[in-house]
Structure formats: C-alpha cells, structure tokens
Amino acid sequence: MIGSTEHYGAVLNLDFDYVKYLDEVAASNLNVTRTFSGIYLEPQGAFGIAHNSMAPSDGRSVCPWARSTEPGYALGGNKFDLDNWDDSYFSRLRDFITEAGKRNIVVELDLFSNFYDTVQWKLSPLHYNNNINQVPAIDDQKEILSLRNPEILAIQEKMVRKIVRELNDFDNLYYEVCNEPYFGDIEALNAWGKYMTGIVVDAEKDLPNKHLISNNIGNGTVKVEKPNDGVSILNFHYAKPPESVALNYHFNKVIGDNETGFRGIEDVHYRTEAWDFMTAGGGLYNNLDYSFTVGNEDGSFTVAPGQPGGGGKPLRNQLTILAKIFGELDFISMRPDSSVFRSVSEQGTSVRVLAGEKEFLIYIHPETGNRMNTDGNPIDFILQLEKGNYQGQWVDTKTGARTDLKFSHEGGEATLRTPAFAEDIVLILRKK
After folding, report:
1. Can you give the pTM of this predicted structure?
2. CA angle 88, 91, 94 (to 5 degrees)
3. Which CATH architecture has domain 335-431?
4. For the segment 374-407, what is each residue's pLDDT rounded down to a tens digit?
5. 3-state secondary structure of 46
6. Does CATH place domain 2-328 in 3.20.20.100?
C-alpha cells in the first residue's frame, strides 16, 4: 500500500471535501489513506502546519458523540453528551470509507491519538470542560491513555465497540489503535494499548468480518520484543533509515511507515524514504502530504518553507511510479536479500535488493556528496547472480522513464553500471 495523505482530518472536519480529496488520491494511483476518529483535535497553528485539517473552524468539528443543548465546547458550539451517539458522524464516516472503496483506497482509521500536551487535551470531547457527563476532572493528558481511570476507560471502550460494529461490513478498512502512543508514560501506555487492542479483537469476535489491526510502534528504529495479540501491522513513523523493517521482519507481519516529515519540503526526502523502506521489505508507505487542505482538497496548496514536511502533485507522481513498479512484480514472493549485493564503486551509496526466484528489484541511492542535488556519473556495482540470461529496465524514479538492459552471465559476481542519474535509480531485473 502506497499513499500520500492529508493530515487526518477528512472526516472530523466538516469543511473538508473528502470526495475531491479521494479523487486526487485515486488519480495518482495511490491506495491508502489515514484518518482520525475525532477524539483528538489540534488548535490552529499546531506544529506550524498551515491550514491544518485537524484544526477545524469553530463549530465545524464532528466526533462519535452527539452535541448536548449546553453551550461551551472549546472549539465552538455545544458541549458533547457522551451517553449519546451522533448519527451524522457515523454517516459521514461510513460515506468516507464507501467513497474510498469505490476508488480502491484502503482506509486506516486511527481510533485514538496521544494528546502530546494540555493544549490538545483541552480540545477533546473527553475533557471534563467539553461534555455534560461529569467525567473526572483530569488535567494531565498522560492519564487519559492509561488504565488508571476506569470511567474514562469505559467511555473509550464503548466508543471502540460502537465504531467496530458500525464499520464491520467494509473490506477496505483496518484499525490503528493509537497514533504515537509512545509520547508519555510508556509503561501505562503499553498496558493501555494492549488492553485496547484486545477490545478491538473482542468487539469483532462475533461479527461476520474481521479487520487487520495496527499498532504504531515508534519513531525511527525500534525492535519489537513481542507484538500485541491480534496485531497484523507494525507501523513506524519517520522510518529513515528503514532499520525497523529488518529488526522486525521475522514476525511475518506487515511493516509500515505511515507518517513522514521533518526533513524539509523537498520531494527527494520523501521519495527516497519510500523507495528505501519498501525495498527493505516494508509493506506500507504513507507520506504525510501538506498540500491537502480545506479549500485545496485536490492537493493544490503550495507547501512553503517552514512546513513540517512536503507534498504536492510532483511528489505524488513520483510515488505513483513506485506503486506501479510494485504492481508489476510478484512482490509477495520477494524478500530483502543482502547476499545478492556485493559492493558498489561510490562510497556512501545505499543499495537494497528485493529478491524472488527469478526477479530482483534493486534500489540505488547515494546518500552522501552532491548527488542528492545534481546529475552524477554512472556507478558500478557488483551482484551475486546465478548463470543465465538476464533482462531488465533502469527506471528514473522522478519521471518513470525506462532504459532496457540485457546480458548473459556465467554465474558468480556480475558487474553492472548504472546510467547517469540524479539522486536515486531503480533496476528491475529478471532471469529468463
């Protein structure tokens, strides 16, 4: 699954035209999006994000719970009644997933998110000032995603069971239990995350359909000791380099990089992160694309310096090339194989190999020097190959342009030379 996703407010922000957004995702031949349930929101200006879809205008947010008749919600409008569901919210959520399905797009629904600080916590419908239900007056946001507050936990559990029942018939959906739970009281969060993962499993056990469940493990490189029961997807953020894939590949679960950013706004950072992660054995890459905003749901907003990440049509086109190439391969039968690659002529160059029985995908990315910005000379590299006739194509990761390659090999080490290229290049190679 390859995506380039708006900042997760497509459902909870009533001003966001998600049909226009999904049209653009589909037009880019991408097939996954990520959205939040509405229990977590952000204020305008949070994290320096311009026109943040997670920061709806006053009175324009929606969540699983209905509004009461009492004014006073922090983001405008009446407070929430945690004893009553908002049917219009569930209609909007179901319609979003339906429209995504029409376009062959899988939805990752994040049920919860870490609150980071009190400013986000004070916007949540669960905050004691934002509902009429006399919930405990908890000021420390780290207490919310824990097992220490039975009344809050019961409300959370009830919400999860309601969502799971409402969405059971969809086949283009998986659940992520919590976005970035690792910021805070780690011991409490781990216990809460294990418990809430079990609630999703239990909520579906008597329903006709079962959905994949994701746990968001950490930023960057993390080795998982033991995945929670019921989890099929291990998702990481900012996974460059993609060492979390190798560390956790033995679990035989999908490993994803489902949020990017904080490396500048230039396309090269997120295109190379995608290729590096997927050729390391990843199964999901989802770029956080800041060109999708309210009013620019077609991804036409210009991402300017100072934004926490990149995005835009050129980058989506480059990710389309990645998605199409994986669509050409029997990638399910391919595995990362470092034994195929022997050496490379330019120091500081990363070479990753996905190998099948007679099919190879080789990604070459010089990560030092000036090649990130300018055309470079060809690079020689050595592969360990069986005897046979080989046929392949060099692929420009920015344009999709291809150059054919054919050679016969007697077995053992084979020296190949790339065309001249800028930043990175891919070789699809097949033994005939």
Report:
1. 0.96
2. 150
3. Sandwich (2.60)
4. 457 899 999 999 999 999 999 999 999 999 999 9
5. helix
6. no
